[in-house]
Structures are given as structure tokens and as C-alpha cells.
Amino acid sequence: MQYYSLNNHALKVSFTTAVVQGLAPDRGLYFPESLPAPDLHFIQALEKYSDQEIAYQVIAPFVGDDIPETVLKQIISDTLSFPFPVNEVEPNVYALELFHGPTLAFKDVGARFMAGCLGYLLRNDQRPVTVLVATSGDTGGAVAAGFHQVPGINVVILYPSGKVSTLQEKQLTTLGGNIRALEVQGSFDDCQRMVKSAFLDAALQQHVLLTSANSINVARWLPQMFYYFLAVKQLKALGKQNPVFSVPSGNFGNICAGILASILGLPIAHFIAATNVNDTVPRYLENGDYKPSAPIATLSNAMDVAEPSNFVRVLQLFEQNFPALQAKLSGYAFDDTATVQAMEAMYKNNGYLLDPHGAVGYLGLKKYLALHPETTGVFLETAHPVKFADTAPHALKAHIHIPARVQALYDLPKQSIPLPATDEALKAWLLQQ
Ligand SMILES: *Cc1c(COP(=O)(O)O)cnc(C)c1O
């Protein structure tokens, strides 16, 4: 399988190059040159296959010959080592719980899959390999856990001092070994700028092979298709067909993978992009005008994105056909007041705890189901409520259960390296390694 840059369809690279580079040299996102659908009989008989077999069938054509079958199967089984249950929270409304992984966020799947791929693809490279990533919270933890103890790869995470939650900081700073956390005396934007400037620094690249693990990497994007296949499999066992999926969206990687799954033949009736007040895409779907505004901070902060980086891939999946896009995708936006009300009402009526991201997904689903009442609806619960316990409504706080593996983190010492928020400081630090 080859991948082309969305900025230049003639620029084609292998899966390996797409994963190692992350972004094409012309700053375009990589996109598969064909969309190989699994066998129709396979999709019709999903319930007969194990989760691992389904994942292998779906992803193998996108990887091609770059990773041998046995290695890819091992990567998949390491990736899918926790459950992805669908949970009926109201009649015909299902929560697809994606938070049972090591860092309690759905990003664990993409990060673990990418770590496995990169570990294999770079096994013969003599240079030290460093995965460099800036985080505002969730990504860093998932990447750290995914790459922990992968041989030959070091991970350097930049995070803004004092601006991530206590739990998130613990997830970044307590693993040790090949994971190092740079505590930047600045903002998340500073961290992102410093990482970008390191990637563009040719002298630095000679010294160390730098690669990124952000959400535009194809090895993080594509395995997210698994959630949708595994959900459809479970719903089939319950006699439910052709569901709609509401996806709480920020950078639009997750929903883009779902749309790809449906294009490959997975029966999904419709998608709902549920956002917080960072509503660039819902507005675009309504009036065809793509006008990002300045990002606004909300309770569902992993979705505080005004310019969703993966949306160009969504457009490409519909071959830039706006009516086709509108027919398959609706967009709804909700503010923090609605989000908190949904969390409170859900707990009161159904005894189910939502996190703020899942709450936005639930609200989007309800809005769509009001117009299409006969449909089976699924919303993605993308984080465990404990991750956002700091800001949870008062009445719910006491009910949020802290999983044992999270509790243990609070007792581990933080190990971070303070760093001034300048490009030169990062470069000097990397050169010393
Ligand atoms: C990253 C994240 C999202 C947004 O996912 P995208 O793929 O960027 O749209 C939603 N919820 C949580 C908890 C996240 O961490």
C-alpha cells in the first residue's frame, strides 16, 4: 500500500515512510492511495470472528508487506488487550466505552498500535530514535504508556507546567525508563512550537532520528477503525443492525476512521460529529462555509480544537463532494451548561456516569434520534470520568470510582525535567542526549 500527500497526490510513499515521517515533507497529511475493502462475507459474519481476527482483516491491506503477518498479529493482540464494551444506557442508546485501556483514554489504541509498528519498522536503524510529542494532556499519557519499554525508542514529552491535571501529569512523569517528560515553563502553544522547530532543524535530525506520534500519523489514525467493527459485532449479537454513531470530536481522527470503516462496507447508517463550542465543522456542514474561529477553552478540553487537523481526510473520503458528505454526516455543537446538565440527568435517570466528552457525544446522538426515532444509536465514551473528576459537577464527584491502577499512580514520584519555553533550550537538551 502506498500513501500520497493530500497536498500533492503525485508524492507517494510506503507505509513505513508514512509512519516514520508522520507528516509529508510538503506538510500534507498522508492518505491511502486505495481503500481496500474486506470480503463482504466477512463483514456479514463478523460475529464469527475474534476481535483480533477482525482487526487483522481490516488493517492488513493498509499495512501491506511492510510488516509480516505474524508481527502484525502480535501488534494487534498487544493493542487490543482490553475490552471495548457497548453498554445500553437507555432503550436503544448505547455507550461504546473506549476507556478501559492503560491510560483510560481511547487514544491508547492508536498509541499502542503505532508504538508496535514503529518498534518493528525501525529495528535496523542505527541512529537513536526519539519520539517527540507536545501534549495538552491526554495524548502524552497514551503515547508514554504505548511506547514504554519499546526497545530502541526513546520518548520525549513536552507539557506545559501547571496546565495539565494531576492525574495527567502523573501519567506523563512516573513511568521512567525510556520515557522522559520535559516540564516546559510556558503554554501548550509554546510546547507545540518547540516541537515543530525541532522537526525542521536539519542539524538536529543528523544527530537523532526524530519522529512524531501525533494524531495525524496513519498508524494512529487507521487502527481506530477497530472500535466501529467491534461495536457493530456486539450490536449484531443483540439483534441490532445499521446503527448511527455519534462521535465526540476534536481533531476528527476518530470519526474519520469510522467513516472509513463504513466506506469499506461496515453497515453504519449515519455519523454525528458532536463538538463543544469549538464548532467549525457543525457550522460548515450547515452552510458550506469553512471558517475556523479562535479556540475556546471548555470542560471537554481534549476537543478544544478550532482547526481539526484530520478534517481534510474526511473531505477526501467523500471525494470533496459536499452533498455526499452532508448525507452521511451531521454536526451538532453543545456548550458547557448543556454538557453538565446531560451528565447530571444521565446519572439521575440511569445511574450512568458520563465524562464531559462522552456527554457531548450523547447530546449529539439524542438530537439526531429525536428526528430519527427508530434508529439504534451509539455514542462513543472516549474517557473514563475519573480523568475529569476535578471539574465534574459537585453532585457526581463522590460517585466517581477510581480504578486501582490509577490510584497507584498518585503515590509514585513525579520525574520531570524543567525547561525554558524556547526552541534553543529544547535543541540544546536534545543534542546532549
Ligand atoms: C482526543 C480526544 C477526543 C477527540 O478525538 P479526535 O480524534 O481528536 O476527534 C475526544 N475525547 C477525548 C477524551 C480525547 O482524548
From TrEMBL:
The cofactors it requires, by name, are:
pyridoxal 5'-phosphate
Record-linked SUPFAM superfamilies: Tryptophan synthase beta subunit-like PLP-dependent enzymes
Give the Pfam families listed for this entry. Answer: PALP, Thr_synth_N
Entry GO MF terms: pyridoxal phosphate binding; threonine synthase activity
Q: What is its EC number?
A: 4.2.3.1
The metabolic or biological pathway listed in the UniProt record of this protein is: Amino-acid biosynthesis; L-threonine biosynthesis; L-threonine from L-aspartate: step 5/5
User: Thylakoid: present as a keyword of the record?
Assistant: no
The family note in this entry says: Belongs to the threonine synthase family.
What is the protein named?
Threonine synthase
- Please tell me the species this chain comes from: Chitinophaga costaii
Tell me the organism's taxonomic lineage.
Answer: Bacteria, Pseudomonadati, Bacteroidota, Chitinophagia, Chitinophagales
